[in-house]
Amino acid sequence: MGEPQRQPLTLDEFLAITWPEGARHELHDGHVLASPLPMRAHSMLVINLAVAIRPHLARSCDVLTEAGVLSSTRAHSCYQVDLLVTCEPPEPRQRTIHAPILLVEVLSPSTQAIDRNRKLPDYRQITSVQEVLLVDSEVMHVELYRRFEGTRWLSEILRDPTDLLHLGSVGLDLALADLYRRVVFPAEESAG
Fold this sequence. Notes:
Blueprint: H1 11-16, E1 24-28, E2 31-35, H2 40-53, E3 62-70, E4 78-86, E5 96-97, E6 100-107, H3 112-123, E7 131-136, E8 142-148, E9 152-158, E10 164-167, E11 172-175, H4 176-179, H5 186-191
Parallel strand pairs: 3-5, 6-7
Antiparallel strand pairs: 1-2, 3-4, 4-6, 7-8, 8-9, 10-11
């Protein structure tokens, strides 16, 4: 006999759960998905980008890591974004961000399928979002999706250390070499 199937959680039930410190959980169509602790490269990329973005923000805007974002197309889904920028006023005990302008996911082998196939399409449906950035943690590879003309999107792929990442949503130009500063790729680990 198999294990009994659990009833899908509602968004309110999910948000009421107190998770252990450092645990990462998301709600996908009513089902909780846990993520392993991130690799060092993942953390370095998030920090490098946050540090680069912060000085460019208006005083009314914030750069946040591991913030909650609700899907606008899936009633029982809440994603934990690696990094985002929002200019919405903060609220007491706020657990989700309602109007992000930039969403960033750092891709790893265990998360990239969900990040690309589920989160990216959902993120592009959030009307406040101007840009979505996917940053690979295993190789120097960045994909930038930029909204134009309301519902249309342009994509740009950057791979060279001298390539300049232009984030119009926050007014930042950043060389890939600076984004990937001190990030060691798996091929470099085995060679060193």
